[in-house]
Amino acid sequence: MPAPQQATFRVDVSKEAFVFSAAHFITFAGDICERLHGHNYGVRVTVEGPLDDNRYVVDFIALRDAVLAETGQWDHHVLLPTEHAEIRVHSDDKETTATFRERRWVFPNEDCILLPVINTTAEEMARVLAERVRQRTREQFGETLTWIEVAVDENHGQWGVCRLPWNAS
Ligand SMILES: Nc1nc2c(c(=O)[nH]1)N=C([C@H](O)[C@H](O)COP(=O)(O)OP(=O)(O)OP(=O)(O)O)CN2
């Protein structure tokens, strides 16, 4: 039976296994720089599009596995921004050093994930995850989806959300 014309469909995945524990610090209000601290981040991913022959938007399992492949890489790591104007991040063959003015943090390279963001806010993390999950699944899911949305929960109900068109690069 065809869907009513005004109907829209989405698939939402939000699994306990998406929770990842990571350390970060952000700046805000211009020049306030947080202490290094951690969160158990939660993630929800939604895609919208027409129903396929299975009457799926996309297979939950395929979307779930794509999200896990990304969030798993961030679990138990320090997340550092590469585009911040004042937090400078530099890696040598062993260590990654982040500096903000007179402050300095040094980590083993393998403990760090460098993200192409200005600030490691929940919103920016949601954008990076949305881009990466879209990239990872585009071939499998095809061109007919309309958008992907990723929401990142920093502290039990504080969500940063990013929605991207499906068919942009
Ligand atoms: N829109 C956003 N606002 C804030 C973000 C963000 O990513 N997007 N991030 C922060 C900070 O990272 C802050 O550390 C949030 O952590 P939280 O633990 O919630 O802050 P609290 O000091 O209130 O923690 P409590 O554990 O509740 O004491 C701020 N804003």
TrEMBL record:
Highest rank taxon of the organism: Bacteria
EC id: 4.1.2.50
Pathway: Purine metabolism; 7-cyano-7-deazaguanine biosynthesis
InterPro entries associated with the record: 6-PTP_synth/QueD (IPR007115), 6-PTP_synth/QueD_sf (IPR038418)
Catalytically driven reaction(s): 7,8-dihydroneopterin 3'-triphosphate + H2O = 6-carboxy-5,6,7,8-tetrahydropterin + triphosphate + acetaldehyde + 2 H(+)
Cofactors that this protein relies on: Zn(2+)
Keyword terms: Lyase, Metal-binding, Zinc
Keyword Lyase: yes
SUPFAM superfamilies linked: Tetrahydrobiopterin biosynthesis enzymes-like
Repeat keyword on record: no
GO molecular function, one term: 6-carboxytetrahydropterin synthase activity
Annotated family: Belongs to the PTPS family. QueD subfamily.
Protein's name in the database: 6-carboxy-5,6,7,8-tetrahydropterin synthase
Organism the protein comes from: Roseimaritima ulvae
Upper lineage: Bacteria, Pseudomonadati, Planctomycetota, Planctomycetia, Pirellulales
